[in-house]
Amino acid sequence: MSDDDHHFESKADAGASKTFPQQAGTIRKNAYLVIKTRPCKVVEVSTSKTGKHGHAKCHFVAIDIFTGKKLEDIVPSSHNCDVPEVVRTDYQLIDISEDGFVSLLTENGDTKDDLRLPTDEQLLTQIMDGFKDGKDLVVTVMTAMGEEQICALKDVGPKN
């Protein structure tokens, strides 16, 4: 059997490319962090002194960037944590369907139709009211670890 006969195919996605390692002691407030497999924004960091067993520990309090849930984690400061790759993209809002999906215009002129309206009541109201009033709206979509959600709105003005 030659070396050419071996074919390895990965069926599982460990999400490795969606995150990168960063030493826990270097993560600060407002940074992103993965806690319990969820992408989160750090709202509080406290570091304990080194104890008799060695490591100083970092206590992270963070908010899930998609669900808004508060999560906590304690990690030795010398260990690595997963940091999610968070990307924000602006799209022009074209249409809102009756089942709650939005139609967005991408930079290259294609449409993106696989996103739902946000669950945040205030943002949802702003989008619906602006759309009803015929305004030109640009939504910001946050993407991390294979999930995406509308997280902000810019009012560009009335439609021409």
UniProtKB/TrEMBL annotation:
Residues 85-154 form the Translation initiation factor 5A C-terminal domain. It holds the Pfam family IF5A-like_N. Residues 1-20 are annotated as: Disordered. SMART domains: eIF-5a (SM01376). The keyword Protein biosynthesis applies. eIF-5A seems to be the only eukaryotic protein to have a hypusine residue which is a post-translational modification of a lysine by the addition of a butylamino group. Keywords: Hypusine, Protein biosynthesis. The keyword Protein biosynthesis applies. Residues 1-12 have a biased composition (Basic and acidic residues). CDD domains: S1_eIF5A. InterPro entries: IF5A-like, IF5A-like_N, IF5A_C, NA-bd_OB-fold, Rib_uL2_dom2, Trans_elong_IF5A_hypusine_site, Translation_prot_SH3-like_sf. Belongs to the eIF-5A family. PANTHER family: TRANSLATION INITIATION FACTOR 5A FAMILY MEMBER. Translation factor that promotes translation elongation and termination, particularly upon ribosome stalling at specific amino acid sequence contexts. Binds between the exit (E) and peptidyl (P) site of the ribosome and promotes rescue of stalled ribosome: specifically required for efficient translation of polyproline-containing peptides as well as other motifs that stall the ribosome. Acts as ribosome quality control (RQC) cofactor by joining the RQC complex to facilitate peptidyl transfer during CAT tailing step. This is Eukaryotic translation initiation factor 5A. It comes from Sphagnum troendelagicum. The lineage of its organism: Eukaryota, Viridiplantae, Streptophyta, Embryophyta, Bryophyta.
